[in-house]
Write a structure and sequence with these properties.
Layout: E1 2-7, H1 11-23, E2 28-31, E3 48-49, H2 60-78, E4 83-84, E5 88-91, H3 97-110, E6 116-118, H4 120-126, E7 135-138, E8 142-144, H5 146-159, E9 163-165, E10 168-176, E11 179-186, E12 191-201, H6 207-213, E13 223-234, E14 245-247, E15 258-261, E16 267-270, E17 274-275, H7 290-298, E18 310-322, E19 325-326, E20 331-334, E21 343-347, H8 353-368
Parallel strand pairs: 1-2, 1-12, 2-9, 5-14, 12-21
Antiparallel strand pairs: 3-8, 4-8, 5-7, 6-7, 10-11, 11-12, 13-16, 13-17, 13-18, 15-16, 18-19, 20-21
Helix pairs in contact: 1-5, 1-8, 2-8
This protein binds flavin-adenine dinucleotide (FAD).
Residues 7-13, 31-34, 39-42, 44-48, 50, 169-170, 202-206, 210, 230, 271, 315-317, 349-355 line the site of flavin-adenine dinucleotide (FAD).
Length: 369
């Protein structure tokens, strides 16, 4: 029998699997409904290692982002995986600098004490094309290749004896004494029953569905995972023009349409915010969004109109709602109160879920000890 079954092989499931199999020597199985790991949210995001200054003090997001960032930088370095601690600037129009101060204070309370205040002239000294707005510089923000990270985690997990079953969906669960009997169904429709000591639901956009199939009544209690789509546009002419990430002030729903770099120095703008109808997954990028993108980005990069924009790709954030109210934190619960100790549901693992990935395993282990 497996000590632990993890449902979902995105960066979160793989990180947790690597932690329990490699560091704690538990016998683990990861089940993934797609043909390959990492085909969901994890392959469609900004690939930014966040510093941790946006999130409410005391929230899981604040704690796990900072813990995850530290673990991620050492893991990437130790294993020679590609990343760059490029830093980022958050720009604010002069009449909104109090919002930068608020971010800096929030960061300090959260333990991010390297944020520096930068004047508009200094910003223009760095990049003449940017608006001369005051900014907050975050030197510990960085970028990575999620694909390389996931391949390494999966490789280590398997080399340590962990099992990964792809084209296998979790479809039902029956508690049996202190164990869980899981029904796993292959893409060809064959179903098998498998006992497990403990289970973690890390199914991303499918996490609420998985919880429901396991008999947890979140949907009946008004929980909903909103599909919040974010599109990106590429700016081919701006390649190598920037060496830092450039962000506007955050909004209540997102960090704003930012200038994102990848490790090849390609520049992309995104993501915007578009709620899809319930359950819909649609990754097409509407070229008509270009106007709205230009308008938003012009506020901090007035010279954007000198560049062509190409529709690129989109990702979908799993935004958790309880009733009509957005639940802004990660929801990670051991279901002992529902009579299922050892079963953990992870709901609403949106940004900074990638940055936090390596902190989830130790956190869940703490719930169990
Ligand atoms: C546009 C966008 C930008 C973002 N930018 C950043 C960023 O810059 N930095 C950051 O830290 N975070 C960022 N995030 C958030 C981050 O990408 C996610 O938090 C993280 O990737 C979530 O990973 P996951 O493993 O939970 O989900 P996924 O990668 O979706 O993995 C879940 C897996 O579960 C599988 N699954 C579902 N149902 C079942 C089932 N019944 N049985 C078996 N398998 C199942 C799915 O196929 C999927 O592979 C961003 C997200 C988006 C959408």
């Amino acid at each position: 029998m497996y000590d632990l079954v993890i449902i979902g092989a995105g960066v979160v499931g793989l990180s947790i699997a690597q932690y329990f199999q490699v560091e704690r020597h538990w016998q683990c199985l990861v089940v993934e409904k797609e043909e390959q790991f990492g085909q969901g949210i994890s392959s469609r995001n900004s690939e930014v290692i966040h510093a941790g200054f946006y999130y409410a003090t005391g929230s899981l997001k604040a704690g796990l982002c900072i813990e995850g960032k530290n673990r991620l930088y050492s893991y990437l370095k130790r294993n020679n995986l590609p990343f760059r601690r490029c830093g980022k600037y958050v720009l604010a129009p002069p009449d909104r600098t109090s919002e930068l101060e608020r971010l800096q204070t929030q960061g300090r309370i959260n333990g991010v004490d390297d944020l520096e205040w930068v004047g508009g002239r200094q910003v223009q000294g760095l990049y003449r094309e940017l608006a001369p707005h005051p900014a907050l510089h975050s030197p510990s923000t960085g970028i990575l290749s999620v694909d390389a990270l996931m391949h390494h985690l999966a490789g280590e997990f398997r080399a340590a004896g962990g099992d990964l079953a792809v084209k296998t969906a979790f479809t039902a669960m029956t508690p049996q004494g202190e164990e869980y009997v899981l029904t796993l169904t292959s893409t060809s429709g064959e179903a098998v029953s498998l006992p497990a000591q403990r289970v973690i639901n890390a199914a991303g956009l499918g996490a609420l569905e998985v919880a429901g199939r396991a008999g947890f009544d979140y949907k009946e209690r008004g929980y909903r995972l909103g599909h919040c789509k974010g599109s990106y546009f590429r700016v081919p002419g701006a390649r190598r023009k920037f060496h830092h990430l450039i962000y506007p002030l955050p909004t209540p729903t997102s960090l704003g349409i930012h200038l994102r770099l990848d490790l090849q120095d390609e520049v992309r703008l995104g993501p915007d915010v578009e709620y899809l109808p319930d359950g819909i997954v649609d990754y097409t990028v509407d070229p008509a969004l270009e106007r709205e993108f230009r308008e938003r980005v012009r506020e901090y990069w007035p010279k954007i109109d000198g560049y062509d924009l190409e529709p690129d790709w989109a990702g979908i954030r799993p935004h958790l709602f309880v009733g009509s109210k957005r639940y802004h934190d990660f929801h990670i619960v051991d279901e002992r109160d529902a009579g299922c100790p050892g079963w953990v549901n992870m709901l609403g693992i949106d940004s900074p879920g990638l940055t936090s990935a390596l902190a989830f395993g130790p956190y869940i282990n703490g719930l169990w000890t």
